[in-house]
Each structure stands twice: as C-alpha cells, then as structure tokens.
C-alpha cells in the first residue's frame, strides 16, 4: 500500500508498506543483480549504509543458480539473508539486451542463455513463475523494451504486445499467490510503461495500464541511449497519466542529477548500477563533484573521500590508503568505494525526502546540483 504524505510541486513524499517492511520514498534501490551487490558488499553492509530496498534480476538468477534452487532454499530473502523489501525485475530487459539470437512471438521469447548457450523460453507466465519462486516483495511485469531508434510502427506494435503481456502477468500472479506452496503469497506486481521517445504512444499506454489498478507503475525504456533532455521530456509527458496514489518507478536511472530532476517530475522509485560500477573503478561521488581516486594527487591525501561523510569508510580511511588499495588491485579498495557511493546515494534520498517534507525541494535541488558541479581541490 502506498500513502502519499506530502507534495512539493510535483515531487512526492510517500510511504510504501509491504509484507517485508515499509519503504520511505523517494527511494534508491541498491542493485544486487545476482543476489549480491558487486564489490564484496554483504547484507549487513546494506543495513549499515541505510539501504531500504535491494534489487535482483530474474533472468540472471534463473540461469544461475536457478529459481527452483532458490525456492528449495526458502526464497531470495532467506537465501541472501535480507529481511527488507526486494524488487526483482522481470528479465525482459536482459532477454532483449544480452541474449543475442532471439525470436519474439505473442506467447513470449525464445532465446539462448548468455552463460552456456542453452535454449530458454520466457513469456509473461514464465517470468511470474520464476519471480514467485524467488519470492521477492515486488515483481516486475514481463515487457519488451524497444530501442528508441525503432520506427513508430514497430514501437506501437511492441507496446500493444507489452500491454497484452501485462494482463497475462496479472492473471498469473493472482493464480500463483493463491497456491498453498507459494513462499510469498503477498507478492506485488508493478506494470511497465513503454513507448520509446514517442509521447503519444507513452501516454496512451500509461492510460491503458493505469486501469489495471496495480500496486505500482514503472517507466521503462529510458536511459538506454536517448539524451537527458529527451528523458525529461518523456517524464514531463507521461508521469501525469500514471496514478498519483501509486509509486512511480523510473527504471535504470541514474546519475544523482537524473534522480534530482526526476523527483521534481513526480518519480519516487529509482535503481541504477552507476554507484557500484563507478566505485569498482575508483570513481566516488561527493557533494563537490566526482573524484577519481586513481589520480596521483591523492597519493598523500590523508582526508577521507568526503569530509563530514558518515559512511563506514569515511569515518576511518584516507584517500591515500584507498588509492593504494586500488592501484594494488586489492578488492578492499573496490569495496570501500562501492560502500561510500551507495551511502552517498541513500543519504541523498534522505535529504530529498526531508526537503519535500519541508517544502524546499526546488531550493535543495538547485544547491545540490551546483555543489556537485564544482571542480574538486
């Protein structure tokens, strides 16, 4: 259940109650694709750095270790020792981006595993069955994510099929949740809006799926090559047509600036690999811009990554030490950078929630963007 607590312009401050706990929104979901945050980050670490929701991937867990294996072990929460909400994405994006040769039909998609080449079929029912086996808190609908470079005719046909698939996802989830051996009979389904960068297609699809009265709605198919300006234009167009009283999730986004702009347009769920991926390459976020800790100027720098930061890394370790670890290819260096970056994102979401509550979001956004654009000393 989603409760809208406050609005500041279009920005929403909400509370989403689930069987695995309450989520304060806007929220950044920390990405653990294969049931682990890349960079040797444990679920104990996630609790310490203020993570509210962990996100795992249906496709990756289906091919390894197998969703049936995870079900036998009690579901994803028990498997990875995490008692807070988990969102699983449907596998659709990975099927269309990783699988190489594939054949799309009305019933679903035939493709080859990117790991061992074996043939796999996935459609709406299969995606729901896998996610039910995983027993996540929130399951995402199975959809096609058409490239924005596709022509209008292709995108319109793709979106129509995605809408039909969503109805099948909903029916299958209701069936699965009623079964006696289902681990999480309270699993929720979020629908996904598609349509490339065609405003009228996006709006029509949003209106159609809003009628299904799902627990939440996502905007997919953005941050996949179009410009930031195009993404913001689509958000301006489509968010008003998604239910205000349900969470709105912008999939795969993004940079701190992307998040700040999207919150201002009414989005309240986010996920992105940037903080972990950048961290593993020694790039860390601060309120004064991004640092590359491989740079020689940090060799003797005894300061933490960011002075005043309360993360477990900044409380103890210097830039100089972390740079040494990175240069020596010690995993600890990557781990420290990932922990700091996720803490930075989670803390920024706390600040966003407070700013909306206090009716000063525009001012906060302006100051945050100006600070992060500064060059580092």
From TrEMBL:
A GO biological process held by the record: tRNA queuosine(34) biosynthetic process
Cofactor, free-text remark: Binds 1 zinc ion per subunit.
Entry's EC annotation: 2.4.2.29
Location of region: RNA binding: 252-258, 276-280
Pfam family, one: TGT
Active-site residues, Swiss-Prot/TrEMBL: 89, 271
Necessary cofactors: Zn(2+)
GO cellular component, one term: cytosol
Binding site for Zn(2+): 309, 311, 314, 340
UniProt keywords, alphabetically: Glycosyltransferase, Metal-binding, Queuosine biosynthesis, Transferase, tRNA processing, Zinc
Residues engaged in binding substrate: 89-93, 143, 194, 221
Pathways per UniProt: tRNA modification; tRNA-queuosine biosynthesis
Superkingdom of the source species: Bacteria
Family to which the UniProt record says this protein belongs: Belongs to the queuine tRNA-ribosyltransferase family.
Described purpose of this protein according to its UniProt entry: Catalyzes the base-exchange of a guanine (G) residue with the queuine precursor 7-aminomethyl-7-deazaguanine (PreQ1) at position 34 (anticodon wobble position) in tRNAs with GU(N) anticodons (tRNA-Asp, -Asn, -His and -Tyr). Catalysis occurs through a double-displacement mechanism. The nucleophile active site attacks the C1' of nucleotide 34 to detach the guanine base from the RNA, forming a covalent enzyme-RNA intermediate. The proton acceptor active site deprotonates the incoming PreQ1, allowing a nucleophilic attack on the C1' of the ribose to form the product.
Protein name: Queuine tRNA-ribosyltransferase
């Amino acid at each position: 259940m989603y409760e809208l607590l406050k609005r500041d312009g279009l920005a929403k401050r909400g509370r989403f109650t689930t069987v695995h706990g309450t989520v304060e929104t806007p929220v950044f979901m920390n990405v653990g694709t294969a049931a682990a945050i890349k960079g040797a980050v444990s679920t104990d670490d996630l609790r310490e750095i203020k993570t509210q929701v962990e996100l795992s991937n249906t496709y990756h867990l289906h091919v390894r270790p197998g969703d049936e294996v995870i079900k036998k072990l009690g579901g994803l929460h028990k498997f990875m020792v995490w008692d807070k909400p988990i969102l699983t994405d449907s596998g659709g994006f990975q099927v269309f981006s990783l699988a190489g040769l594939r054949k799309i039909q009305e019933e679903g998609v035939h493709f080859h595993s990117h790991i061992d080449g074996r043939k796999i079929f996935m459609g709406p029912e299969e995606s729901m069955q896998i996610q039910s086996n995983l027993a996540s808190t929130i399951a995402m609908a199975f959809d096609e994510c058409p490239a924005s470079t596709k022509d209008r005719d292709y995108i319109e046909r793709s979106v129509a099929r995605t809408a039909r698939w969503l109805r099948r996802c909903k029916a299958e989830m209701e069936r699965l949740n009623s079964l006696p051996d289902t681990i999480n009979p309270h699993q929720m389904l979020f629908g996904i809006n598609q349509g490339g960068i065609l405003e009228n297609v996006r709006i029509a699809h949003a209106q159609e799926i809003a009628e299904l009265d799902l627990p939440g709605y996502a905007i997919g198919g953005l941050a996949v090559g179009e410009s930031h300006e195009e993404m913001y234009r689509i958000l301006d167009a489509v968010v008003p047509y998604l239910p205000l009283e349900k969470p709105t999730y912008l999939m795969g986004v993004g940079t701190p600036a992307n998040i700040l702009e999207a919150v201002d347009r009414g989005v309240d769920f986010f996920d992105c690999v940037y903080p972990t991926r950048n961290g593993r390459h020694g790039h860390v976020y601060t309120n004064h811009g991004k640092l590359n800790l491989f740079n020689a100027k940090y060799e003797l720098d005894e300061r933490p990554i960011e002075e005043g930061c309360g993360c477990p890394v900044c409380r103890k370790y210097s830039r100089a030490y972390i740079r040494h670890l990175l240069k020596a290819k010690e995993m600890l260096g990557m781990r420290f950078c990932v922990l700091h970056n996720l803490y930075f994102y989670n803390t920024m979401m706390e600040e966003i929630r407070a700013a909306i509550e206090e009716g000063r979001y525009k001012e906060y956004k302006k100051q945050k963007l100006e600070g992060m654009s500064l060059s580092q000393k």
